[in-house]
Amino acid sequence: MSTTSKTRRDQRRRQEEKAASKAAAQASPVGSPVEPHAELRDAQRTLLAGVVRRDGEWVLGMDGRIAGHSESAAQVLALIMQAGELHERKGTPVRLVYSDALRDAAQAEAKEKGQTFEEYKAELAAAMAAKKNN
Questions:
Q1: Is the pTM of this model over 0.85?
Q2: Same domain, 39 and 68
Q3: 95 has which bridge partners?
Q4: Considering only CA atoms, which of 65, 71, 70 is closest in space to residue 50?
């Protein structure tokens, strides 16, 4: 056996292990797929907020960070709408675009509670204002 054969064998094994790890990582996706459903952008098309669905939960992101998550489509849609209204009040024109799936899920959820989505949104805003004042 040559003096370098052990070194070559160990190097080959490390390369094979690395290739196997890389193939396994590419074969099994990390986490579940993320479905984008809403985005709030300013006039320069900068993303201010967004809503995605992942693992059955609606996730609200703002300023590049996760602001919250909920199983309630009505709640996250109302929150991103409120964020848009806040920007508008401060003089920043914004554009909110959301999916039919998010809208339909929010309306169905509000209907289950015996409300329209607008009523649900107003109730949530009032609850948040009351909590802020306490």
A1: no
A2: yes
A3: 41
A4: 65
